[in-house]
């Protein structure tokens, strides 16, 4: 679902887990590195927040400013909201460090989770050598990879196929409509589910999202798009985002202790819920989805958000949906399952799908700062996967 590019910024909640392994990366070097006329920029982890509690967002330093004609915006309302308020660059061209800082400051997303978001986006649709990614489409500010090893342009996260995909709550499938901009018709259909199944709240009856509502919305969008879109596809990495939707909207995700020996979990507030009420309402979600601005009197989560497995009820409620695609006759068929040993868990299978099908194979043979950055980003994804062994990038190029 396109809004969840924010966390995948769209790493799926299934794909975020705390792991004691170190990142796979050579010792960082600051040696000047110029390749194909581009100067490499070494990625580093930014300083952690000094205050990690709830607070009103946005603050006075981050007012809403509508994007200009040359500013990049894309299918993810969360990323667009960050840019519209200046928590990441307002031009929509952002970096590894900026994603971690902006997501932490605005949404109180834990750096472990934010780094996974950044890694996914930059590896699949950015330029890891110069440490830039567009949250929308092609921009002259994000050059093609050195040697054009992934095609003549760097696409940005709005490009369909690697992470952006079908069955969005508020954006059309790319093959049948506009995959970047808010679709009022889709949102109205979603709100019909809320009116039928939602909880009562301070804004009135049936105005608070609950798990039943989110599952019904997801099922409706999957069923409708599968019929309307002849090229409908939900590979492993996309279906994980569909399953993750309730966690993100409801304000409930599992928090895993960073102690590698810990097994206890607690529910904590999540991304879009108001941190003071732990509720996501029609008013709040309309503000994010349609207006791409922080709602009035909204507070970020009171505890840093760190995702892991989605609620078991959400997955159990959609057993008919497995990773798959429409065949030439419009019949939905299942994709092959991940091979051993990557079939041990949802998060490990998702890691396999991302590295094998979404991260271009040309990144496996880079050098210098380019290699150090790729090693850092792929190491972050490996650490989050729970897999026993890493995978080198092996996806198609120039797609």
Automatic annotation (TrEMBL):
SUPFAM superfamilies: Cloroperoxidase. It comes from the Eukaryota. Residues 60-316 form the Heme haloperoxidase family profile domain. Gene3D superfamilies: Chloroperoxidase-like. GO terms for molecular function: metal ion binding; peroxidase activity. It comes from Mycena venus. Residues 1-20 form the signal peptide. Keywords: Heme, Iron, Metal-binding, Oxidoreductase, Peroxidase, Signal. PROSITE patterns: HEME_HALOPEROXIDASE. This is Cloroperoxidase. Belongs to the chloroperoxidase family. Its cofactor is heme b.
């Amino acid at each position: 679902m396109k809004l969840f590019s924010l966390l995948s910024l769209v790493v799926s909640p299934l794909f975020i887990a705390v792991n004691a392994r170190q990142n796979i990366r050579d010792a960082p070097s600051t040696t000047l590195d110029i390749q194909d006329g581009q100067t490499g920029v070494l990625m580093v982890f930014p300083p952690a927040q000094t205050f990690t509690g709830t607070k009103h967002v946005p603050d006075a330093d981050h007012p809403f400013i509508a994007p200009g004609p040359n500013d990049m915006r894309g299918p993810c309302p969360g990323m667009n909201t960050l840019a519209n308020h200046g928590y990441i660059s307002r031009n929509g061209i952002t970096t590894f460090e900026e994603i971690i800082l902006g997501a932490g400051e605005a949404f109180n997303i834990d750096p472990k989770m934010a780094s996974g978001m950044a890694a996914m986006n930059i590896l699949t649709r950015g330029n890891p050598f110069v440490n830039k990614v567009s949250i929308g489409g092609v921009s002259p500010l994000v050059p093609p990879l050195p040697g054009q090893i992934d095609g003549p342009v760097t696409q940005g996260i709005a490009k369909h196929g690697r992470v952006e995909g079908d069955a969005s709550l508020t954006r059309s499938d790319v093959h049948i409509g506009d995959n970047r901009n808010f679709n009022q018709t889709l949102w109205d259909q979603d709100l019909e589910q809320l009116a039928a199944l939602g909880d009562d709240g301070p804004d009135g009856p049936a105005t608070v999202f609950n798990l039943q509502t989110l599952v019904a919305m997801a099922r409706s969008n999957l069923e409708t798009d599968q019929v309307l879109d002849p090229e409908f596809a939900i590979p492993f990495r996309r279906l994980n985002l569909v399953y993750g939707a309730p966690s993100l909207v409801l304000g409930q995700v599992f928090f895993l202790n960073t102690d590698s020996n810990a097994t206890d979990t607690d529910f904590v507030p999540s991304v879009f819920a108001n941190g003071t009420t732990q509720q996501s309402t029609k008013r709040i979600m309309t503000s994010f989805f349609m207006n791409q601005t922080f709602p009035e009197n909204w507070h970020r989560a009171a505890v840093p958000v760190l995702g892991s497995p989605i609620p078991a009820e959400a997955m159990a409620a959609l057993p008919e949906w497995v990773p798959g695609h429409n065949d030439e006759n419009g019949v939905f068929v299942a994709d092959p399952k991940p091979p051993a040993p990557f079939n041990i868990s949802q998060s490990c299978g998702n890691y396999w799908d991302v590295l094998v099908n979404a991260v271009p194979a040309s990144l496996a043979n880079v050098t210098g700062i380019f290699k150090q950055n790729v090693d850092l980003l792929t190491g972050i994804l490996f650490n989050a996967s729970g897999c026993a062994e890493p995978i080198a990038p092996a996806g198609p190029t120039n797609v």
